Amino acid sequence: MVISTKAQREGDASSDTPVTQWLDAPTEDSVKTVVTYMLEHPSQSISSTHIVATAKAFKQLADMCRDPDVRTRLADGALAAASSLLLERVVAELGPGTEQSNGHAEHVFLLVQVLRCICNQSADTDAARTQLLEHGGTAALARALSIDDVWRQPVPVAQAAFGAVLNVSLDHKLCTQALVDACAIEPHISALRVHGLGNGAHSVWPLVCSSLDNLCEDAEAAATHFEQHAGLASNMLQALAEITAQLANIASVSGEVAEQFVQIKEQQDADVTAALRGAQRTLLWNLCEVLEKSSVVRLQLCEPVYMHQMFDILAYYVATGGPDEPTQTEPNVAQPPSRPLPQGNRNADATAQMIVGVSGEDAALSMFDDSGLQQRLFAQLAQSESALAAAAALCLGNLARTDAHCTQLAETHPDVVQAAIAWFESGEVRVRHAASGLLKNLCVPAPAKARMVELGLPAVAARNVDTAVVPVQANAIGILRHLANGCAEPTVQALLAQEPGKSKDQGKDQDQCALARLLTAVRSTDIDGIRCEGTRLVAAVAKAVYLKRACDAQDLEARGLDLVAPLVRLVVLDGQRHPLLQQESLVALTVLVAASSDNAPYAHAVVRCLVPETAAVGTVSEPTEDEPTEGDTIEANDADDETAEADDAETTAPDSFTNVLKRLLTQSGPVWPQSTMQAKSLITQLTTQLNVQSSPFDPAGLDILRTEILPLTN
């Protein structure tokens, strides 16, 4: 029987409708008639008289859409339009703040069936997803996630809701972005809070996690959304901390959450544990990705309470080895220099990276004054667990990177500094890197230098100038260079001291003092950061010995070390791009030439370098940065970045030392006036040495000096 127009309009209970007729004999051919009726009469379709029939119709449609061929044929837009429209209507009836009416159960029944229909029709069908997006289905889906009934009956309602979101957004960038813009991420995070883990909700958590992973797959877009919603990152971190506390059986929380922990502990089984671990992994990696992409989001977490939560999470992963990665019991395998930090516990590494990222923001500097966090960092640095000590050192190094904080730490907490020195000396790779980075920052302010010397840091740093671990080597060289500017005497003594076990008696060809090993490292390395910083340290030693009288010059000269070649190399390779490095090297060369003697033929070495064949210096790539005025932000692993720069940098044939001097003297191209003046000073000292030295100079170099260089000084 065809229903009359008046009956359709008035919702006559005794009247039949296309929906009820179709339910008697559901066929694919008549689906369009049913969905057209729902589109034209949405109010009647969800009225108390017909809502159950409408729900049953959507149940039948959902079952039909399980067949891939059927859902492809139904993806013409009508079904998507009807689903979107009725979902919007039923969400309005059940949304937050609405009171339960007599027909509440029927509306929930309809909600579940519409969600199931959307879930099934959009499975692997981009056409259906596009139609749902065009008809507002994604916005309605996002609102549906916040309905109270989703978690009152999690198995039917939440399962249908998050399943629909997952299928609609999966591999469809526009739908995913629409759901993110409609704030669909927020209810996903709320769903993974421990206090909501009841009524069998744990069975839905894997679906929620998959959906959240999909929504955050585009880390850039997700980060933008997190930036626009300031509390989102802290809510995600809070959920992660709660789950971690539950897994670790930590009951040191208060209030309602603690009561929930007790209830969950009583009913906990393997399925619940698996759900908790899956949610923990999802929250950790999505938050880590967002923090890596956005400094704005990192700023939102610059509070001591959030830092404590991150360290709690790290402590769990360190203690357990992570949910998927048992603690490694095999002996540590040597790592190649380019990748010094082992990746044995990816979850712990990710958490440490979050700590480093947040603490590296300038806004985080105020956390240094929080006594609770400060004491926690001190305690972790002093304990025997290297992973926690490494994270504490990285965090502390970032928080104490101002002169005031560094001075305060060095002066008032020598035990902390001693603990860092101990880790620098004998810890595993990651904690040596972290501790040495902290110590390098502490060596920057002048008031802290003397205390660092008192605690024996120069000798420890000197023993690491040629280590195969690049980040540790770079920090060791940086420590010595900072200390040489202010505490020159103990620094030079540490570099010239004969080390036990590295003497000529044990088969070494040369005196293996730290300075000798540094020169070898500078000469052989292809990493510009090591070469430039190492050469700057050589320059600092030369000035300290011959200008500041940091030690008896004969102690240095007796070793017969080639101090000239690395300085010339730095002048040639990095002068145009980093004139400060060039000027430092020219100053050091001038000092050495002025101090030339029969025992220290520095002037002869400089003249030999004027011959192109003698001064072969390799190729040009990116140099290091200039010295900071305050402490550097410490990264968890910067070795890969340094080696990547060395690998990717464009290489060009270097100029000769002679041509560089000519360019400086004639001020050709981009030349610092200070560098020109220093080059003239160098030539003046060379001219003086020509008349003083009794031993002959290299004929070819002497000819170049007289015919090509000296005329330009006039």
The shape, in one word, is elongated
Low-confidence stretches: 1-14, 250-256, 323-343, 501-510, 618-629, 637-651
Largest sheet: none
User: C-alpha Rg, in Å?
Assistant: 35 Å
Total helical elements? 41
**Approximate strand percentage:** under 5%
Mean pLDDT: 84
Rounded to the nearest angstrom, the distance between the terminal CA atoms is: 114 Å
Question: What is the total tally of β strands?
Answer: 0
Q: What structural class do helix, strand and pairing data support?
A: mainly alpha
Task: Using brief descriptors, characterize the structure shown.
single chain, 714 residues, mainly alpha, 41 helices, 0% strand, elongated, disordered N terminus
Structure write-up:
- Helices cover about 65% and strands about 0% of the residues.
- It has about 725 residues and is mainly α.
- Helix 10 crosses helix 13 (about 175-180).
- It is elongated.
Give the arrangement of secondary structure elements.
Blueprint: H1 5-10, H2 18-24, H3 31-40, H4 42-45, H5 51-64, H6 68-73, H7 78-94, H8 104-121, H9 126-134, H10 137-144, H11 149-152, H12 154-169, H13 173-181, H14 185-191, H15 205-215, H16 219-228, H17 232-247, H18 256-267, H19 270-293, H20 295-300, H21 304-320, H22 346-359, H23 371-382, H24 386-399, H25 403-412, H26 414-426, H27 429-442, H28 446-454, H29 457-462, H30 470-484, H31 488-496, H32 514-524, H33 528-546, H34 553-557, H35 564-574, H36 579-594, H37 602-609, H38 639-648, H39 657-666, H40 673-692, H41 699-713
Helix pairs in contact: 2-5, 3-7, 5-8, 7-8, 7-9, 7-10, 8-12, 10-12, 10-13, 12-15, 14-15, 15-19, 16-19, 17-19, 17-21, 19-22, 21-22, 22-24, 23-24, 24-27, 25-28, 26-27, 27-30, 30-31, 30-33, 32-33, 33-35, 33-36, 35-36, 36-37, 36-40, 39-40, 39-41
